[in-house]
Amino acid sequence: MKVLIVGCGLAGLAAALSLTSSSSNDDDDDIQITIVEKRKDLESKGATFGLQINGQNALNEIAGVVVGENQSSCCAMLDKLKSAGLIIPSSGGYMLPWWTVRDVLLEEVQARKDNIKIHLGVSIDVVSEQEDGSYIATFKDDTLQINADLIIGADGVHSYVRREILSLPNATPSGAYVWRGSVDTNAASSSDILKHMQEFPIGKITKIGEGLIMAYFNFHPKVVGQIAWVFTARVDMLLDNMTVDCGKTTPIDLIKAYMDSDDANVDEELKKNCELAMLVLNNTHQPSDLTWSSEMGVIDLNQEDIGWGGKGRITLIGDAAHAVRPASGLGGSLAFEDAAMLARYITRRNTNSTASIEEQLRAFE
Known about the structure:
Blueprint: E1 2-6, H1 10-22, E2 32-37, E3 48-51, H2 53-62, H3 76-84, E4 86-88, E5 93-97, H4 98-110, E6 116-120, E7 123-129, E8 135-140, E9 142-148, E10 150-153, H5 160-165, E11 172-184, H6 192-196, E12 203-209, E13 212-218, E14 226-234, H7 251-260, H8 268-282, E15 293-298, E16 314-316, H9 319-322, H10 330-350, H11 357-364
Helix pairs in contact: 1-4, 1-10, 2-10, 3-4, 7-8, 10-11
């Protein structure tokens, strides 16, 4: 079976691993996977990821590890993530830099190069269905052409597969924009104020102004000096002199606009919060993070006559299918569950000759 996965994020990588793990003992139906990603580079962007218990269990299944009742066994990928993460006492989850999770999955995918190929810097253009139910996909500004028996849209909340190929409604904007990045508080140029952040709790949330929130995540116990930050702006709560132009407006712009406004209600605590936020943002590890914003959206699976949204041999996983508000890694852990469940149904088809790919995809959804 030839599988095309659109999106090389956590969902796409997990799906590739899950499908190749489930087919490893089935010589009659070897799975060949191609992952395509519109980004040219897989940068170390993003902030934090909460790997919750459901995500941990899904990763074990993705790797083919059978976990006993004591939950003590775990796959090599999960071992690496646990060793790199900080335990979240309240949930039993682990807090990690987002790209660390991505890189652990990517390393395993690259080890399966006989079954999984990755193409970066290509954007899907046209998908044509063939008489036998398979597809031919072509790409913008590229001669690449891929034949696929199955297409998986794992390209996030603003999914091209969802919008252009399946003709489904976009995610509903939540009215919030988010920026993510990190700062090295141990760098030679870091001030004493930044170094003091190493004493922060695992997570610290501060109010910057009306509709503006800055959250800090302290990885210093695992990665010396590293603090991740997440800046959120609620557009319906911003003052009249403040607007967000996605991809251009920076958190620094918004903080300055708030502080300069005559309508701002600035007390000493908020002033200190703003000064710390400005210091962190001006020393962020990658300056491009300041403009790398995204509008958060959600997808309601209860929409009439839409549901999950797959059709034919095309399905969606992760945020492309069911985007949720960011909450302790919930979306990422659900994407791992999607990958594990999808492999179950594809494997079930391999052992049940009467079930078509289409039937198993609808059952999965």
